[in-house]
Amino acid sequence: MTITAEMVKNLREKTGAGMMDCKKALTEAEGDFDKAVELLRKKGLAAAEKKAGRQASEGVIGSYIHMDKIGVLLEVNCETDFVARTDDFKEFVKDVAMHIAAASPRYLSREDIPEDVINKEKEIYKEQIKNKPEHVVEKIVQGKLEKFYSEVCLLDQVFVKDPEGKKKVKDLLTEMIAKLGENIVIRRFVRYQLGEES
Question: Which domains, from first to last, does the chain contain?
Answer without folding.
Answer: 5-51 (1.10.8.10), 58-109+153-193 (3.30.479.20), 114-151 (no CATH)
